Structure formats: structure tokens, C-alpha cells
Amino acid sequence: MTVVPLCYRRVMAIRKKRSISIPPELDAQIAAAAQDAGLSYSAWIAQTARKEFIIQAGLEAVSKYEAEHGPFSPGEIAEADEWAARITQPPATRRTA
Predict the structure, then answer these.
(1) Quick check: pTM over 0.90?
(2) pLDDT digits (tens, 9 = 90+) for 43-58
């Protein structure tokens, strides 16, 4: 196990190094996505893994809620879909005269 300190300020950031195997086409997609996001390859993978854990926790919470209260109605699902579509759309660009 290799632990690499990145910063010696008040709180030391610690990272664990891993060696992984990735298919070449996936590697290229990750590299491009990281570059587009302005992140390092490692930072993009860490950010994406965190998002996956958040999604899984949300799905588990929904399953638990439905187990206790019954499934969501089609109307509730449609309302949630509309809300999600609104918050995931990029902000509208303003045109000035």
C-alpha cells in the first residue's frame, strides 16, 4: 500500500495509488471527459465514483421509502421527471441588445 501526501498545510491530503486495467476505448473516453472537465484523469475517476455512490444511495432510499409507503404514483413520477429535467438543463443564455 502506497500513500502519497499531497499537501503539508493544516490538513494533509492523502491519496492511495492503485493500478487498474481499462479497455483502450474506455481509457480514451475517460481521458477526453477529464480534459473537457478540466480535471486530471484521477480526479475525474474519483468524481465519477462519488457520483455513482450518491446515485446508489438515492436508489436505496427510494426503495426503502416505497417499501414503507408504497410505490410512487404515475403523477408523482411525472412530476419528479419534470423537476429533474428543469434542474439538469443548462442555464438559458441571455441576449443583450
Answers:
(1) no
(2) 999 999 999 999 999 9
